[in-house]
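Exercise 4. Each item below gives a protein and its sequence. For each, produce the structure-token representation.

Item: ATP phosphoribosyltransferase (Natronoglomus mannanivorans).
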Amino acid sequence: MRIAVPNKGRLHEPTIELLERAGLHLENGADRKLYAETVDPDVTVLFARAADIPEYIADGAADIGITGLDQVRESGHDDVVDLLDLAFGRCRLVLAAPEDGDIESIEDLGGKTVATEFPTITRNFFADTGVDPEIVEVTGATELTPHVEMADAIVDITSTGTTLKVNRLAIIDDVLSSSVKLFAREDVVDDPKVQEIRTALSSVLAADGKRYLMMNVPEDRLEEIREEIPGLDGPTIMDIANGGEKVAVHAVVDERDVFQTISQVKERGASGILVTEIERLVE
Ligand SMILES: Nc1ncnc2c1ncn2[C@@H]1O[C@H](COP(=O)(O)OP(=O)(O)OP(=O)(O)O)[C@@H](O)[C@H]1O
Ligand SMILES: O=P(O)(O)OC[C@H]1O[C@H](OP(=O)(O)OP(=O)(O)O)[C@H](O)[C@@H]1O
Ligand SMILES: [Mg+2]
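Answer:
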């Protein structure tokens, strides 16, 4: 089983960190080496450019891969299956034009020029609009092109919006919402190893923003305290050896609920309260 991941760029580090957190530790990977073994002898990691990963998967060079949805759409490999949203690398592809120019809507682009790093996505976008501008392909710094008469508008990525703003470009329309996902070739979707990797990655996402709460509570106030704990499937209750009238209560709670929950259970007699991070949560 081969999994292709970005070898550089902004997606490289978060992807490696996610694999590590999922327990799929990399082994024998040296700097600049383009593949690595993992703790699972059946899983090899290939390092490729984010833009090439859809092609690796479609071709069979890799079976699954991690990259942006925008890269899969741009590759034209629409048969590559999206298995899991990994919740990072979120961005929008937008159509934008100079703030103070005369392009204010898609219709204004008839006979005009649009510059982009994403010609396939841009062509598909305009195909649905009935407007047919000329598409000029660039490989970066797209925001410059309307200011040097290379293009009248652009289709480019925005996340914080800073680059559009400093280049005085206004959004005309949304083209695509993208995030990083786990993708697979159709014929490996049901492979048990693929499902194992999907489960491991999703267990990391499920644990994000959750905390494990442990406390001792007087048995006669258990019901009251149970009501205050918004736990996953209800809390686990355990006898404590020599615990007297107390029992141990463990629960998974949302991080944003922890502060309030602690005050509420403490008021109702809970003691020895511990809060810990959760690495993975397999449901
Ligand atoms: N603000 C953003 N700008 C660009 N890409 C983003 C942004 N936010 C998320 N992404 C995702 O990252 C991908 C770009 O990855 P890439 O490997 O090209 O990184 P990069 O840091 O842009 O590298 P490069 O130096 O080659 O431009 C995009 O296709 C998109 O899926
Ligand atoms: O909304 P923002 O947070 O400002 O991010 C968007 C910008 O970031 C990316 O550029 P990148 O840094 O990848 O440079 P590039 O144009 O050379 O690819 C993208 O192409 C936009 O220009
Ligand atoms: Mg870039």
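Check: The mean pLDDT is 95.
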